[in-house]
Amino acid sequence: MNDTFLMGCHLSVAHGFAAMARTAVRIDANVIQCFIRNPRGGQMRAIDAEDIAEYRRIAAEHGFAPLIVHAPYTVNPCSDKPETRELARRFFTEELDRLELIPGSLYNFHPGSHVGQGVEEGIRLIVELLNAVMPHAKSTTVLLETMAGKGSEVGRTFEELREIMDRAEQGDRLGVTLDTCHISDGGYDVVGKLDAVLETFDRVVGLSRLHAIHLNDSKNPLGAHKDRHARIGEGMLGTDAIARIINHPKLRALPFCLETPQDDDDGYGREIALLRSLRTPV
Ligand code: FE
Ligand code: FE
Ligand code: ZN
User: Which of 281, 279, 209, 275 is nearest to 29 (CA)?
Assistant: First the structure.
């Protein structure tokens, strides 16, 4: 049985896609997440077909998981300001168009914050944005990220994510990224009740809709609604709980991506080595 451990981290594409892929190989990562523009906004780099071809060659040679592109997190898809929502729509559209150069990628986004308009209105605005941008996701799977419930964030509960997927026009093509820090902060006990949390996820969203795991420890306790990531084993989840997550029969085939606070890529490399040592054979 193929039991490849897809384990990697968030990297910078500042020096190009091929350089990013070479960094991944150096630190033993076969999963990459990146922003394709400054997360605060700004222009995307000009297309370098040669660079993208080299990235795809390295990714194929080393059996990388699909590239995960993280949407800029400062553009709020369910803002109360039309110009902010329009910016989100423009960024998502441009990035999804660009991603067709790397077919079969994943595009992960934060549903956003309803800023006092209420969850219902927030969900309506997110669905409106998805209806506009999904036609641009031809070969890309768009993923909603589970959120910590900080402030007025939408997407803290699995039910909210399900409602967005049910109401969006191409909602059957949407998936979910589960962030272990976020769901713990959101109130799901992944330390004490992992099986029950996954059963709930399966019932509400469906495990077949789960495409990636953001593997992070949390600086804060269960239900804190904070969203501050900790290094693996240095937070409230702890190494044992993280080991159960990467080895869980329902999760182990998924790509795992670290978003832990590191000083440099070698910090990720050390964490990836630790996690590879915690992986148990089937
Ligand atoms: Fe995120
Ligand atoms: Fe995340
Ligand atoms: Zn986070």
Answer: 275
Ligand 2 geometric centre to CA of 16 (Å): 22
What residues does the ion ligand 3 have nearby, CB within 5 Å?
227
Alpha-carbon span 121 to 85, nearest angstrom: 13
For the CA of 150, the nearest ligand? 3
- pLDDT for 1: 67
Ligand 1 centroid to Cα of residue 70, in Å, is: 7
Give the integer Cα–Cα distance in Å for 65 and 44. 23
Residue 50 CA, ligand 2 centroid: distance in Å: 30
- Taking the C-alpha atoms of residue 269 and residue 27, their distance in angstroms, rounded to an integer, is 4
| 74 pLDDT higher than 90 | no
Identify the CA nearest to 51 among candidates 43, 62, 40, 59: 59
From residue 35, alpha-carbon distances to 38, 66, 91, 101, 215 in Å are 7, 14, 12, 15, 17
Question: What are 113's strand-pairing partners?
Answer: 153
- % of the chain surpassing 70 pLDDT: 100
